[in-house]
From TrEMBL:
Organism superkingdom: Eukaryota
Record keywords: ATP-binding, Kinase, Membrane, Nucleotide-binding, Transferase
GO molecular function: ATP binding; sphingosine kinase activity
PROSITE patterns for the chain: DAGK
Record domain DAGKc: where: 164-309
Organism of derivation: Ceratitis capitata
Cited SMART domains: DAGKc
Stated name of the protein: sphingosine kinase
Amino acid sequence: MELEELTDIFYTSDKKGQVCRVKLNASGFTLQRESTGGRSREQVIDLNDIVGSRCIVVKKDRRGCSMLCTSAMQTDGNRSDSGDDTKRKSNSVTFEHKDASAYLYVFAYILNKKHLRNIIRRERTVLKLRFRSFDTFGDNMREAERWYQTVRAFKGHSLGHSDTDERRILVLLNPKSGSGKAREIFNRQVVPVLNEAEQSYDLHVTKHANYAREFIRVKILDNYSGIVAVGGDGLFFEILNGLLMRADWMEARNIPLGIVPCGSGNGLARSIAHVCGEPYEPKPILGATLTLLSGKSMPMDVVRIQQQNQILYSFLSVGWGLISDIDIESERLRSLGYQRFTIWTLHRLISLRTYRGKVSYLPKESFNMESDTMSLADPLPLKHSRSCNTCLDKLHNGCFQSTDCIETSKYYDVISLQNSINQSLQSRCDSWFSPASCRSTYHSVSESIYHSVADESDAESRLQLSNLSVHLCGPTGSAPTLDEPVPSTWVVEEGEFVMVHAAYQTHLGSDCYFVPQAKFNDGIIYIVIIRSGISRSQLLNFLMGMSSGTHVPITNNEYVKMVPVTAFRIEPYDNEGILTVDGERIEFGPLQAEMLPGVVHVMAPK
């Protein structure tokens, strides 16, 4: 159904009497104001940059103090529509109207390409429309509501869903991510934007390692349109593995996954922004939050990791040697944030280690699949696998008590919406007034009606999940098992290695541009092998080049090579060392990895 285009005449607040024509359609808002000499200036606020809008009503209490609330259609159902000033009660406080105006706030985050130092960033803009064409408050509010509903309808069409869709997201937050400020970042930077978009969510705070994995494995996900990790890559790793360990993983994998980067590395969030051409620095939290609201997603490759006692699923990297040593051993300096990696890199260069073992891999050109021409929407068929984890066949009673793990966002919504509206006071965007407006402008603070709710009890979750088969979980591939010899099509390298690191995203961290050519669904693992014998100066140049993507030589040499593969196997000869998957330390021993193209979906910016 084609939606109606709205047009009206408003006056600007900066120059009294200046006329502006405001038009709202499927492209967004077009603001055309007349200037001297009969010429006109036009400004466009793209619909994709708009996160939401809100109708505002100004009220005064008995003392004459201004009080602000959301749409009168929602907060004052007993309101008389007569033009007389009427007294009414709301929350045991008496209000009376002194102004017939109604207001519409439109919140947008516009891409600014003219910033200092050539930094491209998104900046918050608030468009404020004041409706006073009619003599009565009720008529003006109805007109503001009509514009509000039209904005929502256009936004709904652009996202591919109707107004009746409930777009709840499930948020898991790791309070210890990075320097331990994830909770503060979420409350101060993420929640205000979610409130502006009227995005409802359920917030759960993790309690210990692997909490998110078990939580997602048993959680009923029917009412969620997405799952978001507020933390580092480790939290996303837990969510991914919990999702693919579910008995209904074939259906659950279609739920888009998102991340708000609060960790030390933040490789996934940086890769998403890079691949999609979205600004990351200097405001990565804002960009990630807007990505959650975009309604867009893209397929992402997953790598299946096989060890003797477990199956894991990876989205970022597998490491053995130098980079893994730096990542894990620098944990003792976690309070320093990202700087801990630089300090420990210098330490490891001074006391350089080598590791004996065998690395086998299947080069990309040898892999018998149609990935070169494969559509992003049509990944390879997936099969069920029998889990090696015995705990998957049992549901742990008492793992998740709702009173312990659920934090509602109601309190934060109130504070955040207040901050959102108050920020509009400093907005550089003009306010626009409909005819017959007075010049006075009122700003509104209101409690959002979109807040978290307590989810189902553990008993209900376990009961519904128990109706599903829990014997077959997770996708599998076609590579041989870890106990079988590698086929003749694989390349085998043996000796001493400084590092073996495989990656399938562009960035391993915010400042680590590891694989410039990587895509989210190209079906390729890029494995970097550094052999013993490399000089410390060469190794230092390699590590310094990772920030710009110039670390790997154009042509492979005797010490450093990057090979595109679809499967690989690492077999250490010694019993000591560090193996990491997505930055998380795993059991040391033989490991095999195989690419599974496009298994899950990640949220993407528009």
